[in-house]
Amino acid sequence: MDLSRRSFLKLAGATAAAATLTGVGLRKASASPSEPLRIKYTKELHTVCTFCGVGCGVICNVRDGVIVNADGDPDHPVNEGTLCSKGSAHYNISYVYDEKGNPKPNPKRLTHVLYRAPGASSYETKDWDWALEEIAKRIKDTRDRTLVETETVNGQQVTVNRTNSICWLGSAFCTDEENYLFHKMARSMGVINVDHCARL
Amino acid sequence: MDKLLYEKCQEEITRCNRLYDGFSNASPFISTICSAAYEYFKEHPVTPLPAYDQDEAEESIRDRRSLALNPSLHTKDVVGLLKSFGEAAVKTNQKLKATVKEINDYFDRFLLDSPEEVKKEDIFNLRDSLIKETELEEDLATFLFSFLLFSFYRQHLQPTSEVLRTDLWERGDCPLCGEKPHYGLLRSEDGAKQLECWSCGTQWLHTRIKCPYCDNTDMEKLGFFTVEDNEKVRVNYCQKCCQYYKIIDVRKFHADGDIVLVIHNLASLDYDLLARREGFTPGSGLEWVNKKEIVEAQD
Asked: Which of A5, B67, B144, B216 has the fewest CB atoms within 10 Å around its CB?
């Protein structure tokens, strides 16, 4: 039997008082089973502010699948932890207030893709795969239908390969590199109406 | 512990009395321990180690290598300060007199058998032996030994600490001594996560949503818990490595000047107990909860 001096003294009943943090006043008592503290688990999730073109980083605190708070992301190079008054009110994208001033989930918040077919009077719910495929298909259809391959300039046929039927907008939420690739993609399809929303 | 830190500790104890329920029961003990450290170093001043070469230190930090400075300490100083802590404990609770005597006897034997200087690992071996052989429980041993190292290393490493480029450090362990942190804070000005080394007091910024122990950045496996009606302390956890550390959210209370986190850590030991009961282990390796306390909850 492996018996330490301490175990031996305990068995012999000759031991001194145990020196614990409790013994010096740090009781950790409020976490005792009889007086349990109610724990609230929260996740911190990165997102980007949707309000303007600056694209500030936001950390959303989410509890039981519901956003409870939004902080500026201190590690984001754009805003370094700060948020403007609109960004600070991110919480209110998810919530509206009832007559008594209590928050309730915003019933108008979009949580899935809605599609209104040409001529239809109502929206249908679609999934993202369908939406992305449909967008790609329609861009290609429009481009193929309206592509101008050549044009006469000073009496000569010149290759232009362009379409005037599509306009492409870049995004200030994206990085320079991403916008460079968008621009390249647009040009490769023959889109010449390329613009950008940056204005700040 | 120098005069400035001593005074800051006393101010922080007063603040924590206001902020944390039940801490006022423990504050006389903590205050006496701080006084004991202050008085001890007044009589036995520490000579700081010469500053690390600044260029070499910067190169190391840029290479993501901690300086890992953990100087040996004089055995007599280690035992001397621990005995002062023992006296402080007896002042708070007379029932501990026999226990402290038993521990002091152990120290005397340790002094006889030990070389003039002891390394950090020897100090932790001493701690483990005391837990095994005397009535010193793990939680109090963790406090006494971590506070001992904090008191010495903060002074020993001060010259290097002053020139250390912590702004270049991105890892979770301490850039100066290599220990893993147990606590930190969210800065009031921008909410950045600032970790602090329990051993040498170095502070550095760390990515907010990232585990300092396993570098996990998967948001689904990271999170924190608080308790109802008190959100100033967060227990940050990682479900990948199942470890935790504590974060004091300074934005939740008014705080002028520096925050002495070592005191907040003591004032928030409830959260260590909760974290252990929730199944997380301290990533720092510092066990602030006795096994019996965890078992009680499982029963």
From this structure: A5
Cα distance between residue B129 and residue B200, in whole Å: 23
How far off is chain B from A40, nearest CA to CA, in Å?
Answer: 5
Structure tokens of A93? 């994208």
Q: What does residue B53 show for φ and ψ, rounded to 5 degrees?
A: -55, 125
pLDDT for B238-295, tens place per residue? 999 999 999 999 999 877 678 999 999 999 998 999 999 999 999 999 999 998 888 7
CA distance linking residue B143 with residue A9, whole number of Å? 24
For B203, residues 6+ apart whose C-beta sits below 8 A from its C-beta are B166, B194, B195, B196, B197
| Those residues with Cβ within 8 angstroms of residue B239's Cβ, 6 or more apart along the chain or in another chain | B221, B222, B223
Alpha carbon distance A99, A107 (integer Å): 15
pLDDT at B299 over 50: no
**Model pLDDT for residues B10-67, shown as the tens digit of each residue:** 999 999 999 988 888 888 989 999 999 999 999 999 888 898 899 999 999 999 999 9
User: Hunting for tokens 């321990």 — which residue is that?
Assistant: B33
Residue that finishes a domain, picked among B156, B180, B205: B156
- Residues of chain B contacting residue A42, judged by C-beta atoms under 8 Å apart: 223-226
Give the mutation candidate from A10, A11, A39 for the B interface (greatest B CB count, under 10 A): A39
- Take residue B255 and report the two structure tokens written for it: 């705080």
Residues B20 and B148 in one domain: yes
Q: What are phi and psi of B135, to 5 degrees?
A: -85, 10
Instruction: With CB atoms and an 8 Å threshold, state whether B133 touches A80.
Output: no
Q: Per residue in A35-55, pLDDT tens? A: 667 889 999 999 988 888 788
Q: What is the ipTM of this complex?
A: 0.87
- Measure CB to CB from residue B296 to each of A27, A33, A42 and give the nearest one: A33
Examine the domain organization and report whether B197 and B143 are in the same domain. Answer: no
Range(s) of the domain holding residue B40: 3-45+72-156
Residues B207, B194: Cα–Cα separation, whole Å: 9
Position B19 in a domain: yes
For domain A43-105, give the CATH superfamily.
Answer: ADC-like domains (2.20.25.90)
